[in-house]
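=== Structure Prediction Worksheet ===
Name of assembly: unnamed complex
Input type: mixed (protein and possibly other molecules)
Chain count: two
Listed entries:
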Amino acid sequence: SQQGEEDPQALSIQEGENATMNCSYKTSINNLQWYRQNSGRGLVHLILIRSNEREKHSGRLRVTLDTSKKSSSLLITASRAADTASYFCATALGNTDKLIFGTGTRLQVFP
Amino acid sequence: EPEVTQTPSHQVTQMGQEVILRCVPISNHLYFYWYRQILGQKVEFLVSFYNNEISEKSEIFDDQFSVERPDGSNFTLKIRSTKLEDSAMYFCASSEIGGIYEQYFGPGTRLTVT
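=== Predicted Assembly ===
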C-alpha cells in the first residue's frame, strides 16, 4: 500500500447519518492532517493529530490515530448535504516538512 | 481569519511559455510550500521554502521550476517553459513552524497548457 490510502474510495449516505473514513500509512509519522476538498476547489484544513495523540475532536469531527496499526479514521457525525466533498489524509514524516497525501474518499451526502 | 490567497485563479498558456503563479501566505507564517494536483490524481508535493531558500524539493521540481519570495508578502512559482503535462491545479500552502504544524492551503491556480 502507499503512504496514505483512504478507504472507502467513495461513500454515499443520507443526511443525519454518520460518515467514517479511514486512512492507512506505511512509515512512522510526526502528525496526520485531514483536509476537505470541494469539487475543483482548494483544500480546507480540518484537523491535525500528532503521533502521541489518540483522539481529537472538532465540532462534528472526531479523528482517531492508531500508530501501532498505522491508521487513522475521520468520523463526521450527523452529516449534512454541505459535507459532500472529497476528504484526504496527509501525513507529515519526522524528517521532512512536506505532506504526503492519500488518495481521498469521495463523500456524497443526500438530503 | 487569515488565509492564503493565490492569483490568478485560472491561467491558460501555450506550450513553451513561461508562467508565474503568485501566492500570499498567511502573514506570520515562516514556511511556504507549493503542491500540485493533476486532475483526478493525488495532491503532490513540489517544494518547500524557508528562510529565503528551498528546504526540500521533489523529483517533479526540476530545472524548469523555480520559487521566489520577491518581497515580504508574495511567494511565487515560475515554470520557465511549460509542457502539456504541467496542466494541473497548483496549491500554495504556508505553515507557522514547518511540518509539525498545520499547513494551510490557498484556493489554487488552475493551469491549463495548450
